[in-house]
Amino acid sequence: MMTQPILDIIATATFSLGLFGAVLCCLQTRDVWPFRALAAVLLASCATTLGDVPWPIANPDSAIRFDIFAAVIWLIGLMAAAPLFWGYVRVITSVTPRLPPRIWVHALLPTIALILGAAVLFMPQHARLGLFTDTHPLPTGWPLAVGMAGEMLVLLAIVQWGAYVVAIIRRLHHYRKRLRSYVASVEHNELKWIGTIIVIYSAYWGVGAIDVAADVTPLTATVPAWIDAVFGLGLLVILLLFGLRQRPSLAPGAATLPDSATKYEKSALTPAMADRITRKLRAAMGDDKLHRDPNLSLWSLARHIGASPNYISQTLNENIGDSFFDFVNSYRISDAQALLRDTDQTVLEITYDVGFNSRSSFYTAFKKVTRQTPTAYRGSVSAPT
């Protein structure tokens, strides 16, 4: 069980790291949108930990006023955290960063929290003390209504986070599917760390739900303070480690690619042109070995064969029946099979020789095609008959 000094150290570290990360993001001159969006997320994290930091306030009256102020900031940060994180995910998975549609929906609960916070700060002192301390009676009239609305908003925060988790998961699924339409190696761009954030924050959300349930129901279950503190610090560390290195992964040209085959209906691509592109694509892989380039993209392939990226995408989908990712990897796997069968190269050497960026992605792709691991395949083709 953690002592209060350790909890104070964790809270101070969380607040300081969040503030430092936000300032660092604001100083960036490249990829401004993603860094500004990340800075907003980090500031929301700071807002939720402001009241846990052991600020050196000696005057009791000043300490009470600060605690009330920190509680107001906590509520605003709590309601803003999920929409801001959703906005950050949207920015780094978009071709052209822009504000999401119907932004008022995402801003609604944070705005209500801001209004309630302003009402608390402007209500009479005795009313504030009645809402936030046990030394004064509960206020009546509109101050009581503000307090009840704040309690309801905390309950809504639980529902809000669940809704945003679903939205983020759907966004990542669409993004990863689109990513395979133009890049042949996705392991460095799949944003798996966002999935880790979702898992940890969901556990963090569960802890908060238990705390809220204990406050508004007869339940006696309580969550140790150190769990909340460790979750908060862990989330912030992951955000800083990966967020500060993350760049938008979708190339600007991805904006011109159709999202579905139905959008090819107005295309000027003729069957003869598609057949010619198909031959060029197969020659680029079979003769020129372009699949061995780990950074191969739809646009570099388009430059190589002298065809429009849109036409290549349409040809792959309609004539060949593969995504760009699957088409390139089919040649990589075929190449790897020959090397496993005819050479003594190690699996790791073959992994990089045929164009994969990691052994794990090679194993996954190889097993998907052959139903065997590379080692098992080598053993089967070299076994005596």
UniProtKB/TrEMBL annotation:
It comes from Octadecabacter dasysiphoniae. Pfam families: HTH_18. SUPFAM superfamilies: Homeodomain-like (SSF46689). The lineage of its organism: Bacteria, Pseudomonadati, Pseudomonadota, Alphaproteobacteria, Rhodobacterales. The chain crosses the membrane at residues 6-25, 37-57, 69-91, 103-124, 144-170, 191-213, 225-244. The keyword Membrane applies. The keyword Glycosyltransferase does not apply. InterPro entries: Homeodomain-like_sf (IPR009057), HTH_AraC (IPR018060), HTH_AraC-typ_CS (IPR018062). PANTHER family: ARAC-FAMILY TRANSCRIPTIONAL REGULATOR (PTHR43280), HTH-TYPE TRANSCRIPTIONAL REGULATOR EXSA (PTHR43280:SF2). Residues 275-380 form the HTH araC/xylS-type domain. Keywords: DNA-binding, Membrane, Transcription, Transcription regulation, Transmembrane, Transmembrane helix. This is Helix-turn-helix transcriptional regulator.
